[in-house]
Task: inverse folding
């Protein structure tokens, strides 16, 4: 059973008082199950599901409106704030679609999402264009990709685009103070959760052309909802001026990865090994360590930072012998004993003053951390950094928005319990292997891996 947070318990207490009900009331039980579903990343729960869980639940006995803590839309029950977020998203996109100012560009790796955007933008150089992505790493990649197409445009994080307020969940730019732009393009939209998508759309001017780019088949955000996939599903039957799904793959050097990723999405994987993907049941720490050869032999910070694109270990979980904590501890100890100059790190919280963001990857020596900047290397004393982790191994979630030439994907090598089953889905493995541009190794239990390919993420949403 899900353990609710203190905020959830406070909300349940408020619901008891607001509706004058007891903890044995069907409505109280319904609210409890709804909060459980939020922890499982759904933003609502259907009345049909509630009737199965609570046979005596009758939704018609209660009054709901936009001012009550619970909202019922005729099919789903919501916590009010999620219903408000969803309504804002649908209303704003519908308005932009009606005005011919909205387009989705979705597709897997190598299908030309950035190329499609560049073709659109090349005739609009006199218009004010803003670019953004959920993380600093993804924003850097977007900037780099468009620079390769001849554009001198700099992408920024969505938080920076909207203007973060100190110790506030709100932003400087909103419906009353919209962004100043003719065109706004957002990359890696699968990483955006429903509150952030609502706040982003709230700040889009009604006269602005909005482009949402991303892979709808990738992992959903850690937080509730599958908002980009939901938006894609809602608008997929519109013409290409609104919904453009790219399927032709232009990469020629990773055929095996492309073939396996397609099999994973179909849920029918027969073999985890092919010309570009090698599968082993048991993890080899020697293989993982040697994969970082370029980093381990780097003589200076520039070489070390450049090597971060060469190889990365991605883990499905943090705990256990095949999790990030154990692998990081083991590889870091080996690197130190061998006198390695630089080791990898990843930032785990945003710090706007230092221009460092959750997901930013860098390297460190004994006293200083180094990060790639625009035409420069940024240096920070270790003691002044925001929270960070060692990054010989990072979670698959942390890898979104990144690409590496070679990868090692690490899953548990033994059976997993029922509570852990929920995170092992086809989207998780698909996201992992598609971070590789050339080669991928997979370690773990074949049974766990194949079972995960049969399981698809299911998150309830009213965006349809």
Result:
């Amino acid at each position: 059973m899900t353990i609710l947070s203190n905020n959830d318990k406070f909300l349940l207490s408020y619901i008891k008082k607001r509706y004058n009900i007891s903890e044995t009331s069907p409505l109280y039980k319904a609210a409890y199950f709804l909060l459980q579903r939020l922890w499982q990343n759904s933003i609502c729960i259907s009345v049909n599901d509630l009737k199965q869980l609570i046979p005596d639940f009758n939704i018609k006995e209660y009054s709901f409106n936009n001012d009550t803590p619970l909202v019922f839309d005729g099919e789903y029950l919501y916590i009010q704030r999620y219903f408000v977020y969803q309504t804002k998203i649908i209303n704003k996109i519908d308005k932009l679609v009606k005005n011919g100012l909205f387009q989705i560009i979705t597709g897997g790796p190598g299908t030309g999402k950035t190329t499609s955007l560049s073709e659109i933008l090349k005739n609009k150089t006199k218009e004010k264009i803003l670019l953004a992505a959920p993380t600093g790493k993804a924003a850097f990649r977007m900037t780099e990709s468009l620079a390769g197409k001849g554009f001198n445009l700099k992408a920024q994080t969505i938080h920076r685009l909207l203007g973060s307020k100190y110790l506030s969940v709100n932003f400087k730019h909103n419906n009353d103070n919209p962004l100043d732009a003719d065109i706004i393009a957002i990359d890696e939209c699968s990483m955006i959760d429903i509150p952030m998508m609502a706040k982003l759309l709230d700040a889009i001017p009604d006269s602005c052309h909005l482009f949402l780019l991303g892979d709808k088949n990738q992992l959903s955000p850690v937080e509730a909802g599958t908002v980009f996939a939901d938006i894609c599903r809602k608008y997929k039957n519109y013409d290409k001026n609104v919904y453009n799904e790219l399927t032709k793959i232009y990469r020629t050097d990773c055929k095996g990865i492309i073939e396996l990723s397609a099999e994973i999405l179909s849920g029918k994987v027969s073999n985890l090994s092919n010309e570009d993907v090698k599968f082993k049941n048991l993890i080899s720490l020697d293989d993982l360590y040697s994969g970082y050869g370029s980093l381990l032999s780097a003589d200076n910070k520039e070489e070390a930072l450049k090597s971060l694109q060469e190889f990365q270990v991605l883990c499905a979980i943090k705990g256990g012998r095949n999790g990030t904590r154990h692998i990081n501890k083991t590889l870091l100890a080996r690197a130190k004993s061998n006198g390695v100059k630089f080791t990898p790190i990843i930032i785990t919280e945003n710090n706007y003053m230092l221009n460092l963001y959750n997901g930013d990857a860098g390297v460190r020596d004994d006293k200083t951390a180094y990060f790639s900047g625009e035409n420069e290397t940024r240096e920070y004393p270790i003691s002044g950094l925001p929270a960070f982790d060692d990054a010989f191994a990072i979670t698959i979630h942390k890898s979104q928005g990144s690409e590496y030439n070679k990868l090692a994907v690490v899953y548990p090598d033994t059976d997993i319990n029922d509570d852990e089953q929920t995170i092992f889905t086809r989207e998780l493995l698909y996201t992992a292997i598609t971070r590789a541009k050339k080669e991928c190794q997979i370690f773990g239990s074949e049974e766990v891996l194949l079972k995960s390919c049969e399981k698809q993420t299911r998150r309830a949403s009213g965006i349809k």
Observations:
- Residues 96 and 102 are 5 Å apart (CA to CA).
- Residues 80-98 form the longest helix (19 residues).
- The chain is about 35% helix and 20% strand.
